[in-house]
Design goal:
By secondary structure, this protein is of the alpha+beta class. The chain has 5 helices and 14 strands. Keywords: Membrane, Transmembrane, Transmembrane helix. One of its GO terms (cellular component) is membrane.
């Protein structure tokens, strides 16, 4: 029968007193630092809280209304919405009684045709609007519509972020920077929205789909060095022109909150 030699108590003690290996110590220190960093971030870290809505881009000074002082019948319409025109370019022509040749209606300046209300064969009277233009160089603003239940924390001067629907690759270019310039004290009517969007009932229904909304006016931050003329959250932004009538997603930064809230 084999009898094992008794264990030396002193040797056992010496074995337990051996220091931890260096890799294990480094791992433990790293874990402690990571946990501490997470705790500090949880207590002191701040996360932005935003209120979102949908917006509509338009000139700050409104559209240029093009009409005529003549009475007659629209002979031809030579432009369409979205078309860029130059000052003096023929937009349409009118047949006037007693005149052999149609009278042209010319563009008052360089700009973008936004809406055409004139139709060939339609009678026109002095002062009737025939089309609307966005003049070149016009400052653009955004009219945002936010659910009244969400808009209570919005204040003038707050930072706003605007993402136009026709701007490509938000992940690459970011969003346009802006500032809340004004907001309606009470929910706006369907008639008010209809006026802003130029009589587009589909857009009126879209903006009111979630319930009563507050009208928020957002001024875009200018930056002449970018292709669009406005400041973007990432770099120079895309090489596109931001035009009136563009739909957009809008967010207002109402406050920073602790990540534990």
């Amino acid at each position: 029968m084999r009898i094992d030699a008794p264990t030396d108590p002193a040797a056992a003690v010496n074995e337990s007193d051996k220091p931890l290996s260096r890799p294990l110590v480094v791992s433990l220190i790293g874990l402690i630092v990571l946990v501490a960093a997470v705790l500090v971030w949880a207590v002191f870290g701040r996360a932005p809280q935003t209120v979102s809505g949908f917006g509509y881009v338009l000139p700050a000074g409104g559209y240029n209304e093009v009409g005529t002082t003549l009475s007659g019948v629209v002979k031809s319409v030579d432009v369409e919405p979205g078309q860029r025109v130059l000052k003096g370019q023929e937009l349409l022509s009118i047949s006037v009684e007693g005149q052999n040749d149609p009278t042209p209606v010319l563009s008052p300046g360089d700009g973008l045709v936004v809406e055409v209300s004139a139709l060939p064969g339609r009678v026109t009277l002095p002062g009737d609007p025939m089309l609307y233009m966005q003049p070149d160089g016009a400052e653009l603003i955004v009219k945002a519509f936010v659910l009244a239940t969400d808009a209570e924390t919005i204040r003038v001067g707050m930072e706003a972020l605007v993402s136009p629907a026709d701007a490509p690759r938000r992940a690459q270019y970011g969003v346009i920077l802006g500032t809340v310039a004004a907001l309606s004290p009470t929910p706006v009517s369907a008639e008010r929205i209809d006026f802003i969007v130029g009589g587009n009932s589909t857009l009126v229904d879209f903006f009111l789909a979630g319930g009563p909304v507050i009208e928020v006016t957002i001024e875009l931050t200018p930056d002449p060095s970018t292709p669009s003329g406005y400041a973007w959250s990432i770099g120079q932004g895309p090489d596109v022109e931001i035009s009136s009538g563009t739909l957009s997603d809008v967010s207002m930064l109402v406050r920073d909150k602790s990540v534990l809230e």
